[in-house]
Amino acid sequence: MITLSLKEAMKIGFIGGGRLAYALASGFISAGLAKADEITASCHPSDLVSAEAFKKLGATALFENVPVVERSEVVIVSVKPDVVVPALQDVKHLAASKNKLFISVAMGVSTGTIEKVLPQEARVIRVMPNTPALVNEGAAALSRGSRATADDAKVAAQLFRAVGTCEEVPEYQMDAVTALSGSGPAYVYMLIESLAEGGVRCGLPRDLALRLATQTTLGSAAMLRNGGHPAAMKDNVTSPAGSTAEGTYHLEKNGFRSAVIGAVTAAMERCKVVNKLYQ
Predict the structure, then answer these.
(1) What is the pLDDT of residues 135-194, one digit of tens each?
(2) Contact 68, 38 (CB under 8 A)
(3) How far is 34 from 20, CA to CA, in rounded Å?
(4) Would you put residue 110 in left (φ > 0), alpha (ψ -120 to 50) or beta?
(5) pLDDT tens by residue, 77-113
(6) Contact indicator for 61, 41 with CB cutoff of 8 Å
(7) For 59-205, where are the alpha helices, taking DSSP H only?
(8) Residue 121: which of 90, 94, 99 has the closest Cα?
């Protein structure tokens, strides 16, 4: 069993070397959780761009999975859901001979599914990150597999906090996490786009409207992160009979909250359907 210190550089491998894997690797190096020359990633043979990106980090980029697992203490599975099982079939013999921590970031693939492929010695953590991890502002949640320890969870949380935040949740909540924070950036982008379109409709140049909408969203989120409740923050902006009161009334009248709640709920139901494909 690995006994990694959270202050100790870890040997980390990526099965799948796409944009998310690159962002994670960059964050781990910046946080001192891994040395560049002890990171290994396997890329698709046609993905020379990703391979070159890892090499520029000082990491090792390969086109096969076995050496990744051989060289690593922590193996991050960062491939599409339908590739997870075949990829792990290729390396399961290594998990049997060397006890390693496997962390999967594949949407919809349960820890139970992964544990069925790997031998009993292997420990599995499932993580649902989101795309803002690419700019070190990710929101991730993790769940332990049946054999993962509290120390494993601490290691996984420390790694993903290098590119944002990370919370531990029971695995049955992962569909809700995926629907909220996994899909959430798309909803926020639609809000920003709509705010900018509103500014254009009211006479602002499009580039200015987009800059204002983006910074307004960023600043509002930062205020919430510093503490407070969104309802109280909203009330602080809303003066009696003012323009904000008129705008929020229009949103309420047109079902804004209901639409957003419905979007998260619909996404969660879709996750449940997708999850059944990979059980």
Answers:
(1) 999 999 999 999 999 999 999 999 999 999 999 999 999 999 999 999 999 999 999 999
(2) no
(3) 16
(4) beta
(5) 999 999 999 999 999 989 876 678 999 999 889 999 9
(6) yes
(7) 66-71, 81-97, 111-117, 150-161, 174-177, 184-201
(8) 99
